[in-house]
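Consider the following input, taken from an annotated entry for Eukaryotic translation initiation factor 3 subunit H (Papilio xuthus).
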Amino acid sequence: MERVDELNQEAIKFNRYQQLVVRQQQDKHRWLLKRAQENSARAAKDEPPLPEEDVNKLFKPHPVPPRLNPMIVAGQINTYSQHISQFCSQSLAKLYLTQALQNAKEAKQNN
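Applying the prediction step yields:
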């Protein structure tokens, strides 16, 4: 369960990162549109356009969250799941076998 919680926390971090990136892209787009409108208004007034600024300097990219730790945790969860599946499948097979034998015994006693 600790690994599942840890993987969930990593997924939350990645979702936050994606939301920040989308929000930043929207802000960039709005800024570029506003800048284009200002330049067109200045051109209509025969004024020089505003100087071009590097958009990437204004909107610094957010650091990408590390992916190694979530990948390792996912691998551990997969291994645990496989071990549990093997253990449970053997136990379930024994359960079904004993249940079939018990049903056969009860049917034989009822006859």
